[in-house]
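Re-running the complex after MR caught last week's input typo. The corrected sequence lines follow. Everything else is unchanged.
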Amino acid sequence: MKLKHFSIIFSIVGIACLYFLSTLSQPISIELKNISKYEDKNVIVEGIVTEYYLTSFGSQIITIESDNASTIVFLEGKADVEYGDKIQATGKVQKYKGDWEIVVDNVDFVKVIQKWQNISMPLWQLSMSPTKYEGLNVNVTGYVDTIYDTYFYLNDLKGNYSIIVFCDPSKYNIHPGQKISVAAKFTFNPEEFRYRLDVLDETQSIFLLGD
Amino acid sequence: MLDLLLVLLFCVLGVITGISTGLLPGLHVNNIALILLSLSGAIVGTLSFLFQYGISEQFILILICVYIISTSISHSFSGIIPTTFLGAPEENTALSVLPAHSLLLEGKGYEAVTLAALGSYGAIIFCFLLLYPIRFILGGPVFFYSTLREIMLWVLIAISLLMIMTEKGRIEIFGKRGKIPSIVGILFAAFLFFLSGLFGLTISNISLNSPVGLSSPVLFPALAGLFGTPTLLTSLLTKPKIPKQRIEQPKFDRKAKKASVLSIVTGSFAGILVSIISGITSATGTIIAMSTRAESNKRQTIITIAAVNTACAFFVVAVLFVTLRARSGVTLAVADLITVEEWTAFSMPTTLIYLLIAVLFSGTLSYFLVLKIGKIFAKHFANVPYTLLIKFAIAMIVTLVLLFTSIIGLLILIIATFIGLIPIHWGVRRSHCMGVLLVPVILYFL
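Corrected-run output:
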């Protein structure tokens, strides 16, 4: 056997060895606050989508947040995410213009692990940390209070917390005292100096609950 | 005035660096760019005395970009010197001999350097002429780049098929007559392409660490192994007799002049393609350029390769401002250092003007320096202990790989070297090893 045959055999054996090696260096799960320790490493991160947009060249920039730390996920492609979704991204940690980001080169590596509509919370929880959810889609449970033409008030059971919900109440067959969940966008209105929920599009709605 | 003088000064420094890095086999300009990027904070600190002369921090960052781009341009010029003088195999034992090595073995190494310098400089001039047309084609109003992204998968498949189907190597294991050796050659090229692709897919899942804290791109040991060390090892094993080199300028008759202009034009267009299409490199660009020609010879191939390399180094900069996409380590570093302003209007962004001054000035300077250094190499080449030089070059690559990518990188280098030896020993084109990039990129677009 000549060197030219050996080069083929060693190449194939070598690739097999590298494949084995690559299985040992699978991405590790990290918390967002520790991202700076993993430059150029493949990692898995999880967080709530707080912002997302498409660039003019078809890439998607998704900002995710978890435990008061946030990072940017730079995705070559477009994932089907919405504000408030909990996602998992697998990619390489890189620094871009001084900020850390996860570069994900395949849409399949961004997974929505919980849609925002499925992450429900009571009204008091929202009122405890409103800044955490500001600008996001949220799914809040509570009781219908006074109903007007274009809005109604959502209270907790004891009436300690209350928030205004803008929508067309006639569409949802709700009445005062009824327990509901509101899937809506949570924003702060600086003119009225208060937080509000807006049911704006078809992904947002009001659901009647049992008791 | 001071700002222009500083730009020219940083160009000169960049050219000196680029010529030096180009002379060191295996050291890619992208690695230099990434090292400079990591040092940029310290460089701004060192140059902070310029603040009192009205030079802003932003402009110092532009100067670092000027330096990086000048380095990349002069590196693309001087790379021909080690390519020509190092790694030539014994012509009878190696089936695949690079055109520059072929001229070296005829005692015409200096001619190879001259032809390459001509190709590179010609590409710079031609690329300047093409700057505005390409800007309007890639960006508004034509927006060809967006169209290209939509059909990128098919473009890459077409390029891969072109590379494989134009293989001219004959493999005679199943008979020596008729078309069978040519068909086996094409099948073997496909095998090599997919083997390299498998290698590329495997290494893309491996994370590397530099023991000294440098950036650790996994492609560095892979490309050095596929295209660098096999040539050097073959040369070491076959011990070629390098004749005394003659210092002769290439003679161009009318036909050769016309062919050379065509080489520069086709090479430049191919270089532009390389700068905008992900996954293809200068080697692939050269095949595309040569495929458009009815006939070719080794001299025209050298001019074309040089034109592809330099046109690519030129246009990655322009493309960055048109598409806001960094297509090389150099432009990644630039995009990280400064805010890249999209070139949408007729007039160019000021930063791009500075960078293009750097390209033109460093290209001119590099042209004359490479001719000078090439002459020195050719004159004294007979006195150089050739085997020792090759061993030194291999040791240099191994050291750099260890420094940048540690022991795992060395393993990648060794395996890549075995793959890189296959085309040399079987007599097919080395560029099929570009499957290392093309296969993963095609799968990404699928």
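None of the earlier attempt is carried over here. Chain A has two domains: 27-114, 116-208. The mean pLDDT of chain A is 85.
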